[in-house]
Design a protein that fits this description.
Length: about 600
């Protein structure tokens, strides 16, 4: 009987029903609640973080706008008040006073648009350098300023703002009176009227642009970073703090409004990006996920453990009662498997008076009836087979007798001696004597071969010695038991359907494992492979139509007495004729 899988058994179905209709829905509801709550919290944090990024970007953009306006006002003042490039400022008192006025105007613009921590510098090609620093040597600093990067970029920028972040101010130039150790957020550009009238430079300390909480702790990322759209993030001081992969860069750039994540050595960060339009940079605001998920995860873990604990206890109690209630069903199932395998001596232990006990009692009564029925069927089958075998034995082939008697008649008429007639009649008599032993169903292989030799002696006389038989059987195999009348129909098949004379028939026997294999080969015309396969499927009945017992009957009798492992197989011999392989179990005594 086929063993049931866990999904087919009664226990399995009950457990699966419990899982599908009770446990899984409950867990799904809880998981949905936990996931939704976490998602809502993450979305709220994302909104707040995005607002912070937008606010910071707006603040940076405002500072950049005021810096642009400051240089624009300075450029406008040149057009209104100075009108030239102040080329004689060191010698002409009027121009020198204009320079002093320019310095005060630059200080006013700084204080108006920025604050005192910022600075402005103006220089031209005529050796003039003016700034808002408290102590500033115009002539000495001019040589320094015209060599700096900001001056070169301003002259080459065509009047467009040139942003630099961070900018490190040469301490020889001056200071604003406040600490700017982190550098400046700076911009330079050339000033133009009808022609180039010099270059201006403006800088604001980085702490005045970015809030102080933007710096991160040791091993962690700052809460605010700058990004130019490339492959790394920088802190407000302009120092690279995290390289970005192509996927991370694409996510920051192409996922507006969505929750974006960045991985760092100290954990995962939620990232929000806001663009600073004036300077072409992005402000990236970061929030460590562990900052808001730690407490939430702790609560969720506690709830999950509690639910799993309750479910585990409930499942154990359920399984205990399930096993106890279904144990009689499994006992009955084992008994059914034994009955299915042919063991009718089994029975089911019955306890109690419930429905399962009623099934067990009915099953035991059914097994008893099956056992009695099997005995009757086996006895009836044995009697039918015995009657069929006796009727087959009684059916001496009329064609064979007719042909034999005709051969005797012709030989008696044509021969001057009665020697062949006498031999043929003698062999025929022994054949009839052998076949009339009705009480024998099994004989030894040696006895079966003796009967075959008698049969062939008649056929040799009939076919004028054109039939040759080669028997190779070891003496120890000749004592093994075989079913009576199994070889003669196969040899007769070769004679009738071999299709050629002279005919050579070879008989060999060997023991292979627990089987006795007897091969009968001839050198006849054989059978095509396609026809041979068809005959094998149909048990070769057409080839045995002249046999008193028949090849199909031989195969069926062998299988009936010994099982389906044994019987007849057909093939092609080395000589091109037909090869018949007969298999018997190795037995020295006939079965009872």
């Amino acid at each position: 009987m086929k063993r049931l899988s866990p999904f087919q058994s009664f226990r399995g179905k009950l457990i699966i029903s419990l899982l599908l209709f009770v446990i899984v829905p409950t867990l799904l509801i809880f998981w949905n609640y936990a996931y939704t709550s976490q998602k809502v919290v993450a979305q709220e944090v994302n909104y707040a973080n995005q607002e912070l990024a937008d606010r910071t970007a707006k603040s940076v953009n405002d500072v950049a706008t005021r810096m642009i306006k400051a240089l624009f006002l300075l450029e406008t003042d040149f057009e209104q008040y100075y009108g030239d490039e102040l080329s004689e400022w060191s010698e002409d008192y009027t121009e020198y006073m204009k320079v002093q006025l320019l310095q005060r105007r630059m200080t006013t613009i700084r204080d108006l648009l920025l604050d005192s921590s910022a600075f402005l510098i103006y220089t031209n090609d005529n050796g003039l350098a003016v700034s808002t620093f408290y102590s500033f040597d115009m002539k000495q600093n001019y040589a320094i300023l015209v060599q700096e990067e900001w001056y070169r970029r301003a002259k080459e920028g065509g009047g467009f703002p040139q942003w630099m972040h961070p900018f490190r101010l040469d301490p020889r130039i001056g200071n604003t009176g406040q600490s700017a150790g982190g550098g400046y957020f700076a911009m330079s550009r050339s000033l133009r009227d009808q022609s180039d009238i010099g270059a201006a430079f403006i800088g604001v300390p980085i702490p005045s642009v970015f809030p102080s909480e933007a710096s991160g702790g040791e091993g962690s990322l700052p809460s605010l970073l700058l990004w130019d759209g490339g492959s790394e993030l920088r802190n407000p001081k302009g120092e690279p703090v995290k390289p970005l992969s192509d996927a991370e860069s694409a996510e920051l750039r192409n996922s507006p409004g969505e929750i974006k994540q960045l991985e760092h050595e100290d954990g995962t960060y939620m990232a929000n990006v806001s663009f600073v339009r004036e300077i072409g940079l992005y402000v990236v605001s970061l929030v460590p996920e562990k900052q808001f998920l730690t407490q939430l995860n702790a609560k969720q873990s506690q709830s999950i453990l509690s639910i799993l604990g309750v479910f585990t206890i409930s499942m154990l109690v359920f399984l205990f009662f399930l096993i106890r209630f279904t144990k009689p069903i499994h006992s009955m199932l084992r008994s059914m498997r034994q009955v299915g395998s042919g063991d009718f001596q089994t029975s089911v232990p019955v306890k109690g008076n419930d429905e399962i006990a009623l099934l067990g009692n009915n099953f035991n009564r059914m097994v008893i009836r099956l056992r009695d029925s099997m005995r009757r069927v086996e006895e009836e089958q044995r009697q039918k087979e015995e009657a069929h075998f006796q009727s087959l034995q009684a059916q001496i082939n009329p064609h064979f007798l007719f042909n034999t008697l005709n051969s005797i008649k012709l030989m008696a008429m044509l021969s001057n001696t009665n020697r062949n007639v006498s031999d043929m009649i003698t062999a025929l008599g022994k054949l009839l004597e052998f076949s009339m032993k009705m009480n024998q169903r099994f004989v030894t292989l040696g006895q079966e071969l003796e009967y075959l030799e008698l049969y062939l002696s008649v056929q040799k006389i009939r076919y004028q010695d054109q039939i040759t038989i080669d028997v190779r059987v070891a003496p120890d195999l000749a004592e093994l038991s075989v079913l009576k009348f199994t070889l003669q129909p196969l040899v007769e098949n070769s004679i009738i359907h071999g299709g050629r004379m002279p005919l050579l028939i070879s008989i060999a026997a060997e023991a292979v494992d627990d089987r006795l294999e007897i091969s009968i080969r001839d050198n006849g015309n054989g059978v095509p492979k396609e026809k041979l396969a068809e005959i094998q499927d149909k048990l070769m009945q057409p080839h045995a139509k002249y046999s008193g017992i028949g090849i199909s009957n031989v195969d069926r009798r062998i299988k009936l007495h010994y099982g389906t492992r044994f019987g007849i197989r057909l093939g092609t011999s080395k000589e091109g004729g037909l090869e018949v392989m007969v298999t018997f179990p190795i037995r020295e005594e006939p079965p009872q």
